[in-house]
Design brief:
Blueprint lengths: L1 E4 L13 E4 L5 H11 L3 H5 E2 L2 E2 L3 E5 L2 E2 L13 E6 L8
Parallel strand pairs: 1-7
Antiparallel strand pairs: 1-2, 3-4, 5-6, 5-7
Length: 91
């Protein structure tokens, strides 16, 4: 299972949960789709025009991703979603 840490600004979509676990996928896009099935509407806040929303920084196992939604994700990965430095809004 992939563990996803949800930022406070998005917890209304996760039922208040700080972490959500979903089945892994071969890419971040697949993991986000599975997260959206568990937390409807969250993918619309995490993505913009087919890529990661610029207001979000995504870390997989403590390393910031560089390949966007095609980033590979291991079955037991930990994903942290953080507000990007420099502004922007998740709301």
């Amino acid at each position: 299972m992939v563990t996803i840490h949800i930022p406070a600004a998005l917890r209304s979509l996760s039922g208040g949960r700080e972490t959500v676990q979903v089945a892994g996928g071969s890419s971040l896009r697949q993991v986000f789709q599975r997260l959206d099935a568990e937390c409807p509407g969250i993918i619309d806040r995490l993505t913009l025009e087919g890529d990661i929303h610029p207001a979000i920084a995504v870390f997989i196992d403590d390393e910031q991703i560089s390949q966007g939604l095609i980033e590979p994700v291991a079955e037991d990965a930990t994903i942290r979603l953080l507000p990007a430095l420099g502004g922007g809004s998740l709301a």
